[in-house]
Design brief:
The protein is mostly helical. The chain is built from 8 helices and no strands. The longest helix has 33 residues.
């Protein structure tokens, strides 16, 4: 028969999976909004954001309860510590996705800018990195962590190039200034989503290996 601690830990794991899945769905909706593809109504996306916020609070409550009523050690303690950090990072992913959706409503004539500067490729990588982050936690597969870090680097490098190109377009064509500005903000949000996914991967690495890393040093540690 499972102990109270084991039941609480399993509940915590299930909630993290749930909040991760919700954040992943938000990122998908955000990508669709940037690419002018059909996406859920804003009120539905807002409902999902509220669910993420409530789960974030619930995760903190469960972790605090476990600390207060039990004495977790070793791997259980690492899991709880990682859970609190991951919850905060995932909640931010949801917030940023919502911000992208709101920002996209202000991007006029975005078809031309998005197609010209390969924004679709960046948006796709942001979707993929979020899905990989979730898979990494569900399977506790440390090998996926390196893929998450590589995708984060790719999103950053592509975003830098895209932003430079958009700024160049804005300088040569004043009609694109407003749309270009909003698109740059959306790109910066996508960069941050990739960063938060990378931070979650670091927490998963700590949970599995009892070592703290930063992704810049991951290759050296390998």
């Amino acid at each position: 028969m499972a102990s109270t601690l084991e039941i609480e830990l399993e509940k915590l794991r299930e909630i993290i999976i749930k909040i991760g899945n919700l954040a992943e769905s938000q990122v998908t909706e955000a990508a669709k909004s940037v690419l002018s593809e059909p996406f859920s109504e804003v009120k539905e996306v807002k409902k999902t954001e509220n669910k993420i916020d409530k789960l974030d609070v619930k995760i903190d409550d469960i972790c605090q309860s476990i600390f207060a009523l039990h004495q977790p050690v070793a791997s259980d303690l690492r899991f709880i510590m990682s859970a609190m950090q991951m919850s905060n990072e995932i909640e931010r992913i949801g917030d940023l996705a919502m911000s992208i959706i709101k920002q996209s409503k202000s991007i006029k004539e975005k078809h031309e800018l998005v197609a010209k500067f390969k924004i679709a490729e960046i948006a796709k990588e942001v979707e993929v990195i979020t899905a990989k982050m979730n898979r990494c936690f569900k399977e506790l597969d440390a090998s996926i962590i390196e893929e998450v870090f590589a995708l984060n680097d790719s999103v950053k490098s592509q975003s830098i190039i895209a932003i430079e190109n958009i700024i160049g377009e804005m300088k040569s064509n004043s009609k694109t200034v407003i749309s270009g500005t909003h698109l740059i903000i959306a790109l910066k949000h996508m960069e941050r989503i990739a960063d938060h996914n990378s931070n979650v991967a670091e927490s998963i690495y700590f949970m599995i290996n009892a070592k703290t890393i930063k992704h810049e040093k991951f290759t050296d540690k390998k």
